[in-house]
């Protein structure tokens, strides 16, 4: 789940390479360039592959969703799209916590508790995971976050509150497009002034989207479970969102 990467000092090279993105420095120390890759991994890197066109689609979908959320009051890191696969974002220190919101049972929640995939959660669930590849990104409680000083109590409160706001806003948007938002993962970072910003990406790599009519999965589960048609599914999300650029 985490994007454990390499750090290099050379200016001409990247600062950090994750599983699906590379981060490069820019002339402005508070801005970095993100390059979205076609690479895909699942199950903590156990399954590896490449999905042609995924980098471009995720770059564009993420830009669109951050812009949408920003207009509705969610502070975030996105600045602007640079090219088909690249965007500029504010440099932040990512908190080592992944925040997952769930509206229906799927994935690890179904596996961990033996619940039926697709069952509706009576109200949205918020979960925290510790970003630590070695330990397989364990589910943790707010007290664990405080114990390990991964984030302050105030930051935990803000992450929960904002994650639920993002959920409401994304549900509103996706429902209009005939898509059910099953769950998603967010990451937050602190800017140079200590302000908490929504960061990383929001895309079919980090969300579960099911077609409202057919229940068809339009997200990374197609890759995780070798269902085929991964790029088509991502493209479907992009076009439903009104995406127009040629991809
Ligand atoms: P999970 O059911 O596997 O815990 O996933 C919950 C949500 O988080 C789902 O929308 C996919 C997303 N997610 C990531 O973005 N990165 C990850 O590494 C994992 C495991 C899940
Ligand atoms: N991207 C994650 C990994 O490779 C897992 C996932 O999204 O399922 O660990």
UniProtKB/TrEMBL annotation:
Record field: transmembrane: none
Single annotated GO MF: ATP binding
Keyword Nucleotide-binding: yes
Superkingdom to which the source organism belongs: Bacteria
Domain SAICAR synthetase/ADE2 N-terminal: 15-240
Gene that this polypeptide is encoded by: purC
PANTHER family noted in UniProt: MULTIFUNCTIONAL PROTEIN ADE2, SI:DKEY-6E2.2
Alphabetized InterPro entries for the sequence: SAICAR_synt/ADE2_N (IPR028923), SAICAR_synt_PurC (IPR033934), SAICAR_synth (IPR001636), SAICAR_synthetase (IPR050089), SAICAR_synthetase_CS (IPR018236)
EC number: 6.3.2.6
PROSITE patterns from the UniProt entry: SAICAR_SYNTHETASE_1, SAICAR_SYNTHETASE_2
Enzymatic reactions: 5-amino-1-(5-phospho-D-ribosyl)imidazole-4-carboxylate + L-aspartate + ATP = (2S)-2-[5-amino-1-(5-phospho-beta-D-ribosyl)imidazole-4-carboxamido]succinate + ADP + phosphate + 2 H(+)
Keyword Protein biosynthesis: no
GO biological process, one term: 'de novo' IMP biosynthetic process
Keywords from the UniProt entry: ATP-binding, Ligase, Nucleotide-binding, Purine biosynthesis
Recorded family membership: Belongs to the SAICAR synthetase family.
Pfam families: SAICAR_synt
Name recorded for this polypeptide: Phosphoribosylaminoimidazole-succinocarboxamide synthase
Pathway where this protein functions: Purine metabolism; IMP biosynthesis via de novo pathway; 5-amino-1-(5-phospho-D-ribosyl)imidazole-4-carboxamide from 5-amino-1-(5-phospho-D-ribosyl)imidazole-4-carboxylate: step 1/2
